[in-house]
Amino acid sequence: MIWEVFRQEAPGKYHTHCGNVHAPDREMALLFAQVQHGRRKPTNSLWVVPKEEIGEVDAEEAEFGGTTDKSYRWVSAYNVDVDFAAEIAESDREQREAERGES
């Protein structure tokens, strides 16, 4: 049975797919995942999931466009007075950092 492995580098970070292992059950999959994917890089936790339990929706099956536009949350999306130039610059900086994944 094939198990997909997801690794979390540090507490609070997202789990990311790092590979798979072949194992007969969950306990062996966790053990193999620790050996193969958890010991060389910093690892906070591992998830193992049976490959057949992972579902997928791709762009041909559903439309994703437009659902994630949240530009209304940023000051730069609106016409404002020049008196707020410093606040607009700060908002733009925050937006660029958020898009790059910085906090």
From TrEMBL:
Q: Does the keyword Oxidoreductase apply?
A: yes
> Which keywords, in A-to-Z order, does the entry hold?
Oxidoreductase
Q: Which GO terms describe its molecular function?
A: phenylacetyl-CoA 1,2-epoxidase activity
Keyword Cell cycle included in the entry's annotation = no
Signal peptide start and end residues = none
The top EC class is oxidoreductase
Lineage: superkingdom? Archaea
InterPro entries with a match to the protein in the record? PaaB, PaaB_sf
- The EC number on file is 1.14.13.149
* Protein name, UniProt field: 1,2-phenylacetyl-CoA epoxidase subunit PaaB
The record lists the lineage as: Archaea, Methanobacteriati, Methanobacteriota, Stenosarchaea group, Halobacteria
- Quote the gene name from the UniProt entry: paaB
